[in-house]
# Entry
Amino acid sequence: MSESVKPQSGKAFSVAILGAGAGGLAMAISLQKAGIPFTIYEKAASVGGTWRDNRYPGCACDVQSHLYSFSFEPNPEWTRMFAPQPEIRAYLEHCTDKYALRPHIRLNQNVTQARWDEDARLWRVRTEAGDTYAGRILVSGMGLIPKEYYEAGEGFGANGWQRFWRITLPLLRPSLQSALILRTLAAFEVFAVVTALGGTTLPVLMGETFNWQFAMQDRNVASAYALVILGISIAATLFFLRVLRVPKGATI
# Structure
């Protein structure tokens, strides 16, 4: 729908869908059944999303085929319990044709910006080619690939810091948390080893615990040191979990 076309009033809304993968196609079919006009903007030359882009040897779905299907379009032709990529892509192409979606799909339209026009109460969608379209409602049909999240953030006008804080950090958070927590725990052992090898008299918690437990045979003091280490470890863990928490509204 071009920018000069005014959205219909009343209960009829014009909907702009970004992406012609499984999510975008499912949304389009549902809108079609409800009689709501829509347009899909797809950056590639064909539909299929991740099942179009990923074609490496052995590519298949890890969800059983009959579950990885639209509820309104079961497929009795699956050849395997876990369908290979070519079959899934063919299934999505079949759904596109059966539900006559192709006239509503704009291929090779890489959306680079989506801006809400408060005065007109419309979404203004701009493509890489410089074309501008409008829609009353904007739906992101982009998948779970981090690169697509990043492109979506850029399209909605997020700056570099916002994309890092809202997209990159949530994706990296579990790995960062695990790495920092393990490194904190390992640091006690590393310091103890350095102390033993270097012969320094600098008291190190882990080394002192070992010394009181085995050299001085005082389990009470050793236990006290162990509790201090445990407390520091818990505090460090909570600190890392707090600092690297997923920002509100950015949970994946």
